[in-house]
Amino acid sequence: MLEVIPVTVATDEVRALVGELDQVLSAEYPPEQRHGLALESIFQRNIRFFIARLNGEPVGCGGVALFGDFAEVKRMYVRDGARGHGVAQALLRRIETETAAADLSMLRLETGNRQYAAQRLYQRAGFRRCEPFGTYAAMPPAATATSVFYEKRLNT
Questions:
Q1: CB 131 within 8 A of CB 137
Q2: Dihedral sign from CA coordinates of 7, 98, 128, 59
Q3: Which of 33, 73, 98, 152 can bridge 127 by disulfide, Cβ–Cβ 3.0-4.6 Å?
């Protein structure tokens, strides 16, 4: 059984999942090219965050930051052993639902150029590559040299 549940505080499960994601990303990218939210920044008023459970076990997480004119996918991660079970798709559907519920029609994201599975997921879900947006657009080029940007217009 797969379920996606909202979390509003940094539980041990959230800490473990975000910590694993940070380890994966730090092995691939230098600090100045990693743009994930710090754990303490995830639980803000404009962010909705979720844990995915497969047969009761926490196997993934992801969130969405809601801004004035768009939303941004944040901290998407699925443990290796849970991949191929629809976890990432379920998290992404929940993120899209939250975006639409906030009356936003544009969902964007930044991922790393070595995150091949993530890029395939987003492309299959209807995301298209785009230019840097929001705060990324103001960053020096070296800070986003390994970044890939995507966006998807939702039917709200």
A1: yes
A2: positive
A3: 152
